[in-house]
C-alpha cells in the first residue's frame, strides 16, 4: 500500500493550494481518506475526512468554509484544497487512509509522506 503526495508548495497569503494524494495497493473506495497537518513545532491537527465510496466529507470546524476535499476514483487520487491562505497555514500536510475509522481519534492504517506548504509573501 502506498499513499504518494504531491510536492512542495509555496504560496502567497490570500491564495489557494491543492495537494494530491495518490493511493495504490488497496481498493480506494473502501478506505476513508483523512487529512492532517503539522505546523512547525506543533502537534498533528486533524482537518477532516473524505469517504471516496460515497463522496461525503467531514470537516473540522476550524477549517469549515476554507477547505474542500475531493477525489478522482478513476485514478485513486484524493485532493485537499485550502483557500484564503495565511501564514499560520504553513505546515506539512498529510493524507492517511483507514478502513474502519474516520475522525481525529483514529490511528490510521496508512500515511502519505507529507507535503510541505509554505505561505509567505
Describe the protein's architecture and organization:
The protein is an all-beta fold and 121 residues long. It is 0% helix and 50% strand. It has no helices and eleven strands. The chain has strands spanning 2-5, 9-11, 17-24, 32-38, 44-51, 56-59, 67-72, 77-82, 91-98, 110-111, 115-119. The strands form two sheets. Strands 2, 4, 5, 6, 9, 10 and 11 form a seven-stranded mixed β-sheet that branches. It is globular and about 40 Å long. The N and C termini lie far apart (37 Å).
Summarize the structure.
This protein has 121 residues and is an all-beta fold. It has no helices and 11 strands.
- Main sheet characteristics: 7 strands, mixed
* SSE ordering: EEEEEEEEEEE
Secondary-structure-based class equals mainly beta
Shape: globular
* Count of separate DSSP helical elements: 0
Gyration radius over CA: 13 Å
Amino acid at each position: 500500500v502506498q499513499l504518494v503526495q504531491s510536492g512542495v508548495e509555496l504560496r502567497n497569503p490570500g491564495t489557494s493550494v491543492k495537494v494530491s494524494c495518490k493511493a495504490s495497493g488497496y481498493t480506494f473506495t473502501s478506505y476513508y481518506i483523512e487529512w492532517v497537518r503539522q505546523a512547525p513545532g506543533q502537534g498533528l491537527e486533524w482537518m477532516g475526512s473524505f469517504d471516496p465510496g460515497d463522496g461525503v466529507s467531514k470537516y473540522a470546524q476550524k477549517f469549515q468554509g476554507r477547505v474542500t476535499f475531493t477525489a478522482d476514483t478513476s485514478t485513486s487520487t484524493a485532493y485537499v484544497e485550502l483557500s484564503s491562505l495565511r501564514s499560520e497555514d504553513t505546515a506539512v500536510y498529510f493524507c492517511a487512509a483507514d478502513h474502519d475509522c474516520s475522525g481525529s481519534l483514529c490511528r490510521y492504517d496508512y500515511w502519505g509522506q507529507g507535503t510541505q506548504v509554505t505561505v509567505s509573501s
